[in-house]
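Intended use. Records like the one below are meant for learning the mapping from a protein sequence to its folded structure. Do not use them to infer anything beyond what is encoded.
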Amino acid sequence: MLDVQASGDETILFENADWRVIADGLEHRGTGYFIARESLGRRSESGLWEWPLHLAEKSWCSLRPFRDAFQAAADLFNVERDEALSQSFVTGFGLRMGQGGQGGTEGFTKLAELVRPKSIARRRPTASEGRPVPHRNVTGRKEETDTARAALS
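Structure written out for the chain above:
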């Protein structure tokens, strides 16, 4: 990927906490990483957009601010967005899981987290281990087993 410097024109067309769009392209405010206007719509051989895939590899790149700035830049520079752009973000950053969220994940789950093996479920202690095990009687009311009740007496 090309990492070019912006020209002297610093007129800000769009800005958020992490990115700004200037006449020459898209710039990360913290690192100075720059995406030239002319390369914004670049695609891979599979038809996916290259920049969302590439920036997903950067530890300093947060999805939501990048996506907002990238889409604003595409609109400002008349780069036609299509379904492949959404697919590029999903492929690079992961699938949306639930309704938003707080913290670094911003409501998204990295694809690698989806394929991790599940941890072994914890087993609940039984009455013989010193804790009563509630169960429902015929009336639907919770009761403790006789053994557990005797242990508590």
